[in-house]
Amino acid sequence: MSPDLDDEFRWLEALAGAEATAWVRARNAETSDVLADDLSFAALRAELRQVLDAADRVPFVHWDGTYLYNLWKDEAHPRGLWRRTTLDEYRRAEPGWEVLLDVDALAAAEAEPWTWQGAIVQRPGGERCLVRLARGGADASVVREFDLTTRTFVPDGFTLPEAKTDVGWIDADHLYVGTDFGPGSLTASGYPRIVKRWRRGTPLAEATVVYQGRDDDVSVYAVHDPTPGFVRDFLGRRLDFFRREEFLRTVDGELVRIDVPEDAETDVHREWLLIALRSDWAVADRTYPAGSVLVTRLDRFLAGERDLTVVFAPGPDSAPGRHAWTRGHLILNSLVDVRSRTELLSPGEQGWRRTPLLETAPGDERHVVVVDTNPEHSDEYLLASTGFLTPTALHYGTVGGPVETLKRDPAFFDPAGMTVRQLFARSADGTRVPYFLVSPPGEPTGPTLLTGYGGFEMAWTPSYSGIVGRGWLARGGSYVVANIRGGGEYGPRWHRAAVRENRLRAYEDFAAVATDLVDRGITVPARLGIEGGSNGGLLMGVMLTRFPELFGAVVARVPLFDMRRYHLLLAGASWTAEYGDPDDEADWAFLREYSPYHNVRPGRSYPPVLFVTSTRDDRVHPGHARKMAARMRGYGYDVSYYENVEGGHGAAADNAQLAFKWALMLRFLWRRLTVTAH
């Protein structure tokens, strides 16, 4: 079957096409006229902007050497101030910050809509960095060398034009670079296929190729580890979203394979190799189950030994989470029934000793995560704790010492009388699906907002949102987070249960949560709204077309809808391991069962829907939302559409745009769920 068959709106995929641009402007005007045209919208947007720009919110930091780096956005600096300070200063109520780069001033001076995409500080040394700037929030960025001492861009320094670039320091005069070198240098997913070693003062065209992948890989990469006593280089190719091959590159240029399963994640720190398994691994007369986290000495592993220590063993209700190394220890997050556990693991002659970090009491709804460590220099760490009703706090500790709270977000809404419950629904195949319900005080009388994601092994955990709190909960609405299959809430098995041909299980899980909310008397379909973005936007599209009777309104952000052409648009080819390959007729047979663009029909009873996307989203093509909106409009359905010119995959480039986007979505949902009934 041709990808173009029955696609009368293919012309809307032209990002800058005159006809497509005119269509977008007309839809934006219609939506703004209906939803953003009065004082109540302006008041809501102003409240949300206050949350985003609050001067007393936590300035989250990234640790690099002796400095803590932060990008700060507020009303006066909507695109951000990149700045740094020391830990001693950060402890103060009003830290003294050294401003390194004013992104707004740079954007104004260069007449470019720059947004901050991060910086890579040279190690060791820390006097230079590679700054990444993107136009309008896109994934593709330009790279410029920056002097942290003079706080200026380096004349004739390393610079790279706009691309989805992978770059890193080797030493003061050499970089590893994977970028768009011209025809044939990118994979089908639009990421680097070739990585080169680039010497200062020479043209990029003369850089030396050190590694190449294949067209159907997702990308290739090279990393230099400058840790004193453990200096080394690693090269690799990402075969798909979950599989990769990685090699240690010797000083002679020989590549030594790190012989782990292709779908395993690895991390090297000093003498240690950490292996996180996505599938069962039979090695040395033992089988380690998927979800296990193993540690061994890298040199022994490369020599053929398989003396592996299990530092996390999955259970029926548990899953591994994020980890981080300090200089001599390992911090490991895990989940038990989607509730966090954080432990410090310390190596010794008797094995790895475990110590709980920042323990929460039974009934405490906070979720604890590792924010950062300073592994080259110390055993210090930063943790964050957060919950639906508990403002986010940043904590500091050193191994062997107490944990202190450095900063805490203000309360953006009054949680008095609100409750958080974890409930479980039964999916169509009998699987027990957890979800969190946040309820306002007393008997709920407002509408209910349900969200979820269910993809790419990402776990949706409790977190504090001033936007949801101020804009929804404080008005009397209930809020629900569904932990459906496809995510990582119960590890790899939970994810694998809903990939490719089993994708419908994720959608049945979400429908089961919606049904359970009604069965428990928490809400009714006409007052139940749903919202999700990216893969969660695809979830919203399937709910709209497959289970429309369950919902009163739908919001889909930066969504995938056309599963026949998704792999041909921008980064879509990198997701075939998750969804399937539409060019394979066997895969298309199950993709077409739920592809929203191919399953919307005339003459059905669909709830009203709002699609929100960005012209500058170079990850999920805005053509998905454009074409779906056009088709639904043609059928006469109640569909609203808003496309921000900037914003990238977040559909907002600064706090003003973010406040507008959320005010638009919440206003749409509140109106549809309280004023009119589906």
From TrEMBL:
Residues 6-223 form the Peptidase S9A N-terminal domain. It comes from the Bacteria. Pfam families: Peptidase_S9, Peptidase_S9_N. Transmembrane segments: none annotated. Gene3D superfamilies: alpha/beta hydrolase, Prolyl oligopeptidase, N-terminal domain. SUPFAM superfamilies: alpha/beta-Hydrolases, Peptidase/esterase 'gauge' domain. Residues 473-673 form the Peptidase S9 prolyl oligopeptidase catalytic domain. Keywords: Hydrolase, Protease, Serine protease. InterPro entries: AB_hydrolase_fold, Pept_S9A_N, Peptidase_S9_cat, Peptidase_S9A, Prolyl_oligopep/macrocyclase. This is Prolyl oligopeptidase.
